[in-house]
Automatic annotation (TrEMBL):
It catalyses: [protein]-peptidylproline (omega=180) = [protein]-peptidylproline (omega=0). This is peptidylprolyl isomerase. The keyword Ubl conjugation does not apply. Its EC number is 5.2.1.8. One of its GO terms (molecular function) is peptidyl-prolyl cis-trans isomerase activity.
Amino acid sequence: MKLKGMVALILTLFSIVLLSIYYVSARPHPERTPVADVNGSPITARELENELMRQRAGVIDYFRQTYGAEYGKDFWETDYNGETPGSVARNWALQSLVRTRLELELAQSYGLIRGTSYEDLLLEMDKENKRRRAAVQANEPVYGPVKFDESFFLNYFLSHLRIELKEKLSEKEVKMTDEDLQKHYEQIKDTMFTLEGKVSFEKTAVSYRGEGKGTSAERKLTAKKLAESLRTLVDQGMEVTEAVQSARLQAGNDTVTIRNTDDELTGDKAGAYYRSQPQLYSILSGSLKAGQISAVFDEELLGEYVFIKVKAIEADGYQSFEENKHNVRSSFMDIAYESYLDKLYDKATIEIYEERIDRLKLLSNL
């Protein structure tokens, strides 16, 4: 009797467990609710929620830049000239998800991935994380995090997938000739392949600041005379180091600080030179040619007399097409790829379930 009672109890408990499992599995999972379909492939609420968070900062910045809006209470519902941040965030997120789904469909058609659903992406993430964990255990290099989460994996996965897709498209769908690439080079060279002009020069400076013999006016006069003597010797063909020794002997002064340096003026240094050495900047921007020596000038901000010898001048120009052909091709394919996706977008069957998005209140988490 006791045995029968025990069996009945076990069966009862087992039935309760089964019913609980069935109840939990049968319950609807809001995050799995389709909020859109792309060519019959569902986009889930979970995907939209994640993408909304990715778009969040961009939307806030857009409204700040466009309307001077400040983020705060009721920001997402506030109307700015017919636009609300919430609706813009939703539209941007959906457009991004649709475009991503089309990329995944394209990748599947080329046999690069097995499926296009969010669950398929999570399986890819799990596979990549296992590969990274095994690499760490084997003391092999791992670039990036040892373990991805959903927010970072999608960008990582898509960036690698796009490289493969562009290569596939270049083989079959996108034809490019050298003439096409040459034309593209002409279109992008001003933004991608400019060569800054550069002036290489040798600078000799004689300081008149700091401690020394005589008054400050006397030290300044001594420095000027020494700089002029140096310039004359260099102009006559003497090396600067030799000229310094000779000029010191002539002046009978071995305490003055003399500096000789090689430098160059480029576009990224121009602002710094203009602010800290305005006389030098003015002379370098003038008409001196390679091999010529400037007159001695007073760089008052630094407290020194200076002259320069221009060693070389490189004019503005462009890097050649031939040396950048690979980069031109990559740029061409980037544009061709986006154009191809635009065509897929126009042909796609897209359904957006607005009432489900509203019911799930996904925007409330922003």
